[in-house]
Amino acid sequence: MTAILDDQDATNHRPVVPRLTLAQGSGGQLSDDLFISCILPRLGNRVLNDLLDSAILPGADRIALTIDSCVVQPLKFPGGDIGRLAVCGAVNDLAVCGAKPLGLALSLILSEGLERSVLEEVLDSIAATGAEAGVRVVTGDTKVIPRGLGAGLCISTAGVGAAGPPEVHPGAIRPGDLVLISGTIADHGLAVLLARDMPHLRSAVRSDVAPLNGMIHRLLDEVAGVVFLRDPSSGGLAGVVVDIAARTGLHVTLYEKDIPILPHTRHAADMLGIDPLEVANEGKVVVVVRPEAVDNVLDALRADKYGKDTQIIGVVGTEPDGVCDLRTEIGGSRILQKPYGEQLMRIG
Amino acid sequence: MTAILDDQDATNHRPVVPRLTLAQGSGGQLSDDLFISCILPRLGNRVLNDLLDSAILPGADRIALTIDSCVVQPLKFPGGDIGRLAVCGAVNDLAVCGAKPLGLALSLILSEGLERSVLEEVLDSIAATGAEAGVRVVTGDTKVIPRGLGAGLCISTAGVGAAGPPEVHPGAIRPGDLVLISGTIADHGLAVLLARDMPHLRSAVRSDVAPLNGMIHRLLDEVAGVVFLRDPSSGGLAGVVVDIAARTGLHVTLYEKDIPILPHTRHAADMLGIDPLEVANEGKVVVVVRPEAVDNVLDALRADKYGKDTQIIGVVGTEPDGVCDLRTEIGGSRILQKPYGEQLMRIG
């Protein structure tokens, strides 16, 4: 029995009970720890262990499955709302695994007392975003939980897709491959943070939440040499690139000056003391490509409204150190890490 | 603008805002109303409109998709827990559509402050139930929401399955078909209700929560003449049979004396003044069969530990009235209705 006592329990000498913290749901290192120490030992299997955004189901003809829950507050924020987020989360997780969406399953957990008009607006947004992405809600479940127990409205969206060739997998990444981002970073997380914590501030920061399946499938269908895709949602760009370095065991260099960021987003991040590389995006994709394919990939992405600001931001090196370094604008270099815990909470 | 004011708003003359009630998540008529008036007009499509437990995805080779959320309190109850419920809900929804599970997607919405050991127990239960059902969690998502906003632990489970022939669909039901239930009713809902509202009562009522896919697939593989299957979860046996009558437009007669119910469950229902026909089950299936197939179906179901108490409980008639009547034990008859709203809340 541990002898460590917390303040609350000091009087009656009960041991401290390990409890979950917000940071363990943030998509950072603490989330990874919870997953690796608690979930994987119990539920681990070959498919789950691969830790991709979607699972390719064993026993079916390349059917992909993903699930994403949205607990964002506020429900509506500049540039989007929880309904658009719920559709895009699932659609984009399928798309980055090369899977075209076949249908969505929608689980609504609503609080007693929620205004019906709020639910209706969210459903309208789900319908509109589904129409844009070309995917339908084919099944669902609705629960209402007692007032005071619920966060108003939580949505879990599962998506099923058909994963055609080519297979995109981090195992295919090799030295010399280039790292691209399909547009400006940090807009979603900062838009939500400002809307939640500074609701009276008038800011131009708008969430980038968007379905990327159209752009990604045109890219995969038309251009060879795309090796890997991942959407930098919770954990941000840093989370994705650090993961790429760790999984491949190769060195990745990012060039800060090439990473697109809107002036007002940078301003908001500076003001709040937040690293924009660690902020969630919901309408961007990191693409790793063979160097000889990069011009065609840039052309294909930039031809899409959601990819017009695509930039080459990094390169995979030969050093087998599994580390990502950022070459800063002022000529320095620092080792990137995944965000540790809660930087921006409840924005996904 | 409506002139109706509620007490709270009487002083400042704001109009009443329509808000959600617990009853709208109960699986009864009010749930149907919410679905039909709010969700279907916005998200409706050919597949969703079919209102089956799983959707057969268009564009794929008979791939079925379902989703089920569990918000049960308490998390652990006699006979089961939220983890077993989360797996069985999805697996059974696939099974009653004739689909063999290929994989599960697990969305965990956890509250800050939840004891880690509670999460670990739930994960252990998910793993054990998955092993029993022969299905794995292949992908997932974990969010932690702030203390005070959350119900401790909510789980949404999506399941994907391969739906082989024969197709089971209410459209195939015709006069003369027999209605079977695979065992005793009302155990799950009453076990949860007693555990939640009367935690100090010692009762023998135990939830029946169980994965039925093994039993159902053996039945479908080995015996011809099964027309339709549905698990009587929220809404209970009454909900399923009333739906069958309404969807087929045929008269269904149920015989109360033939409906299996354990003595202590009947006693608990009587004590609480609850109609056991309206209480949720999580390990039972209603099966509609051709009359010539009934002996083989009975043999197949009774050979399984989850179907040993299977009984013929009703018959589909010729009258085109879409109504279900219950022949009572004392020789009377009453028209069955779907539960209206909240009878047993948060048990699914």
State the strand order across the main sheet of chain A.
Answer: 9-11-8-12-10-13-14
Number of helices of chain A: 9
Task: Tell me the Rg of chain A in angstroms.
Answer: 20 Å
| CATH topology description of the largest domain in chain A | Phosphoribosyl-aminoimidazole Synthetase, Chain A, domain 2
Description:
- Chain A is of the alpha+beta class and 348 residues long.
- Chain A has 3 domains: 44 residues, no CATH class; 111 residues, PurM-like, N-terminal domain (60s Ribosomal Protein L30, Chain: A); 167 residues, Phosphoribosyl-aminoimidazole Synthetase, Chain A, domain 2.
- Chain A is 30% helix and 22% strand.
- The first copy, chain A, is built from 9 helices and 14 strands.
- Chain A has a 7-stranded mixed β-sheet with strand order 9-11-8-12-10-13-14. A 5-stranded mixed β-sheet of chain A has the order 1-2-7-5-6, with helices on one face. In chain A, strands 3-4 form a two-stranded antiparallel sheet.
- In chain A, strand 5, helix 4 and strand 6 form a beta-alpha-beta unit.
- In chain A, helix 3 packs parallel to helix 4.
- Chain A is globular and about 55 Å long.
- The two termini of chain A are 37 Å apart.
- The relative contact order of chain A is 0.18.
- At the A-B interface, helix 1, strand 2, strand 5, helix 4 and strand 6 of A face helix 1, strand 2, strand 5, helix 4 and strand 6 of B.
